[in-house]
Structure formats: C-alpha cells, structure tokens
Amino acid sequence: MKNRDNNCKNSENTYSGNGSRQSRTAELTQLSLLTAAALILYIIESRLPAPVPVPGVKLGLANIITVVAVYRFRPGQVTALVAVRLLLGSFFAGSMSALMFSGAGALLCLAGMVILGRILPIKYLPLCSVLGAILHNIGQIAVAIGVMRDIKVVAYLPVLLVTGCIAGLFTGLCARAVERRIPKKC
Fold first, then answer.
1. How many CB atoms lie within 10 A of CB 6?
2. pLDDT of amino acid 17
C-alpha cells in the first residue's frame, strides 16, 4: 500500500482518475460514500438545536463533505453529490419547503467553491469553505427577497455573513481533517 501511495499523482487537486474500469468503480464508490456521509450529517444537523438563537443560522456540517469533494472530484460529480444530498435530505428531514432556500444557497456556494478550488491549492481548503458559506447566505437572502417580495430582508445579511464565516471556517477545518484521512486517488 505504501508503494502504491508513492506512485500516486503528486497534484494538489486530485480529481481525475486514469480512466480504467477499476479506477472508475473506485471513484464512484468513494463518491457514493461521501454522498451518504453528507446526507447523514445533513439529517443529524436538522435534528440538532440551533447553535445560536438566530433563525437560519446553522453549522452546515454537510458542507464538510462538499468541500472535500470539490478538491477530489470533477465539478459535475460534486454537483450530483450536492443535488442528491439536497433532495434526499429535504425528503428525510421532512423539510421540502426549505429546499428552495437550501438549493439556491447550495448552487451559489458550489459554483464559488468549484472556481476557488481550481485556483487555490488544497492547503487553502478552509478559505474555500468560508467563501462557500458567504455565497450560500447570499443565495438564501436572494430567495427570501423573491419569496417575501421585500428588499428589507437584506438587513439580515450582515448577521448571516458573520455567523456564516465562523461556520465556514469550522467546517473548512473539519474538511481539512477529513481530507487528510481519505486515501488519495491514483
């Protein structure tokens, strides 16, 4: 195993396999396991009390897995992971109405993290997570403005941005710890 690890690509962003059937199967297996882990974290977090008494503030534990996936897989694969987690998480958590808010936030978050994840090396993974949290909050506020038809909702954005940066840093540090424990793809 040690010899195999030495033969792995020495790239910072390891999201492409060698194309063999075995590597595609291993990649699909790892992506499936990460999707399941993200879904489990999402469901667990939906059952926990809010970390602070501010509506809409949460840690975003499922984002730990998303940030790892941004650095490990192609954008389409990460998008599939997030879509499955959002749909199944909303279904299992019994919160289909929140899907609109979570979906808008997740798509904006994912777009920003994918771009940043291709520019910055993996050592900056926590920064990528913070940016994702900021974009997620902006996406949610945009949907809230549309649903409520009131621009005054923007006044809530500073609170969400501060708490989002703290949560993004926490999930980014957790993601770095998780990423270091997942075997590199060859």
1. 8
2. 52
Give the integer Cα–Cα distance in Å for 140 and 153. Answer: 10
Q: What's the token pair of residue 27?
A: 């990649």
Label residues 144-161 b or e (16+ Cβ within 10 Å = b): beeeeeeeebeebbeebb
Residues 155, 53, 104, 117: what is their CA dihedral angle, to the nearest 10 degrees? 100
Phi and psi torsions of 52, nearest 5°: -140, 155
Long-range contacts of 21-28 (CB under 8 A, 24+ apart): 23/185, 23/186, 26/185, 27/73, 27/185
Cβ atoms of residues 73 and 15 within 8 Å: yes
Closest CA to 175 of 44, 58, 60, 67: 67
- Per-residue pLDDT of 83-95, as tens digits, reads 999 999 888 877 7
